[in-house]
User: What shape does this take?
Amino acid sequence: MKFIISLVMFLMTNILITTSWGADSNTVSSSTVTGTTTVDRTPSTAASPNVIINNQDVCTTGVSGAAQSAWFGVSFGNTIEDKNCERLKLARSLYGMGMKVSAVSMLCQDTRVFQAMEMAGTPCPIDGKIGEAAKQIWDKEPYRRPDYLVWREKRENKDKVKELDNFGTDNVFGDEPSWDDEY
Assistant: This one.
């Protein structure tokens, strides 16, 4: 809408400048003028909007920009959400309400936290289970891991991945994969 208004104003200005206004008369005069005349018809500059985020407790960042040429100008503005910041604030709120397992579960959605918990020997909670019971579920259903694609690429998991990929195709009796009994 602003573009249309700017275009109409530009065209009206050009029409008014090029249209000669004057009174008709029979007076004849002649004169000689030497020199150069410069007419500046520079369009106005595109201004980018200010994206102001006053609250410090918001996990968003404002971004704006503008570009201007001789005939056309454009500007934009947007906000970008920070999902990791939101996850941390939610976990902090859950922990503050005394829901420690829920707070850890929230943080475990990040693959880095999930892998760190696994390396420390304290697997992330799943389905209300913690500790060894959670580890058994993660081992039985690795496709639910947040780092499942990375887990599939590990050399020590190749046999499990092959069995998961073939599960249901050649298994006539509907048995579950046998490798979770070993752990």
The chain has a mean pLDDT of 77. The first strand starts at residue 60 and ends at 68. The helical segments are 2-18, 83-96, 100-107, 111-119, 132-140, 148-153, 158-166. Residues 171 and 177 are 9 Å apart (CA to CA).
